[in-house]
Amino acid sequence: MAAVAARYGVSSEVAAFEDWDPAARTFDRVTCAQAWHWLDPEVRAEKSASLLRPGGMLCLFWSVGHYPDDLAVALHDAYQRALPPGSPSLVIGYGTNRAGNPAADIGAVADDLRAHPGLAEPRMSSFPWHRTYSRDQWLDELGSHSDHAALALDLRETLFDAIGKTVDRFGGTFRMEYISILISASRA
Description:
Layout: H1 2-7, E1 27-33, H2 44-51, E2 52-66, H3 69-82, H4 102-114, E3 123-134, H5 135-143, H6 146-149, H7 153-169, E4 173-186
C-alpha cells in the first residue's frame, strides 16, 4: 500500500503501529479500517488517543457481509467437506448467515474506548450497502483474506474449487448484503 501511495505522491511510514514513533506529531484523525482487532489491546487506545490533537477523532470501521441464507448453508457444507478435521478456523467469507448481529460484536470495541479517559463517549454509525459477485470475483476477494491466504496452496486450491462449484450451483453470482460500521470517539 505504501508503494501505491507513493505513486500518487502520498508519503507514508511503514512500521507496526505499536512500534511506530510519531516524533511528537499529533493529528486531527487516526483511522483504522478492518484491523483494530489486530493491534495490541494494551497499546492501541492509549497510543491512538495520544496521537490526537484536542477535538481530534479516532475513527474505526469495519464492513461485515452476509450471504443469502441458502448460499451460506451450502458454503458452510463446502468448507466442511474441503477442509480436513483440525484445519484452522476460517471466517467463511464474512458472515455465514443473517441471524447474527454484526454490531453486537463490534460493540465491545466501543466498550474498550469508553474505558479510556482520554476519549469522549464513542459513537456508532452504520451504513448498509450491497455488492453482487460473480464466482471469480468472489474467489479473488477470498484470496485477499488473510485466513484463506494462509492456507497451504493445495488446500486453498481444493477449498476454492469447492467454493466456486457451490457458487456455480446458485447461478454463478450472488448478492452480498453488507453493513459498514463506524465507531468514532474524539479526544476529550
